[in-house]
Write a structure and sequence with these properties.
The protein is built from six helices and seven strands, in the order βαββαααβαββαβ. By secondary structure, the protein is an alpha+beta fold. It has a four-stranded antiparallel β-sheet with strand order 5-6-4-7. α2 packs across α3 and α3 packs across α4. It is elongated, with a radius of gyration of 22 Å.
Length: 190
């Protein structure tokens, strides 16, 4: 059942609370408040478990969150249908793949029109070495995280990049040590 609300009035809150209580008995309800998909602590626990290990069985998840298997499975399906869970992937050992160098590349450009941005985005996203790309506020325009095997591989990437797109300034910083890395989002906040 899809429930959509026009605003956050008291009537909508009471209706949402009613369906939330009902969901404890039947996890097939999808609760919406405006365009926001509302999750309870059980949804967040399920997501936390899946972030740590996407291969964990529904039975194991259900027992850890206090549900029976079917309502737990329905919740996971609902989270996938609503796009909260976008995909399940395997995390690889970079050392075994000889990809141990992270390079943070700060890019400044003199051009800020839509044509340049489209060219830049198309060029950068075509490089497998670029694992993250952000448009930034502040003194730099774009920030990339590039993963390569060594400095020579980064130089090869850099040469291919500047052949594809005009850049006014590129500054590269090589990570010396990774102190924290996770793909898990902070579900406890908010």
């Amino acid at each position: 059942m899809k429930q959509s609300y026009c605003d956050r009035c008291a009537k909508c809150v009471r209706t949402w609370l009613f369906y939330r209580e009902l969901e404890e008995y039947d996890a097939s309800y999808s609760i919406f408040w405006g365009n926001i998909f509302l999750m309870d602590s059980i949804d967040r626990k399920i997501l936390s478990l899946l972030q740590r290990d996407a291969d964990v069985s529904v039975t194991d998840i259900a027992s850890q969150v206090g549900l029976s298997t079917t309502p737990c499975w329905r919740r996971i399906q609902r989270l996938e249908e609503r796009g909260v869970i976008t995909r399940r992937v395997a995390l690889l050992d970079r050392a075994q793949l000889n990809l141990g160098v992270d390079v943070f590349v700060a890019v400044k450009t003199a051009e800020h029109d839509a044509t340049w941005l489209a060219t830049f985005a198309q060029a950068v996203t075509a490089f497998d070495e670029v694992v993250e790309l952000y448009r930034m506020s502040g003194e730099i325009d774009y920030l990339m995280r590039v993963v390569v095997r060594d400095i020579a591989a980064y130089d090869d990437f850099y040469q291919r990049l500047i052949r594809k797109v005009r850049l006014s300034d590129v500054s590269s910083s090589f990570a010396m040590e990774r102190l924290k890395y996770t793909t898990a989002l902070p579900l406890g906040a908010g």
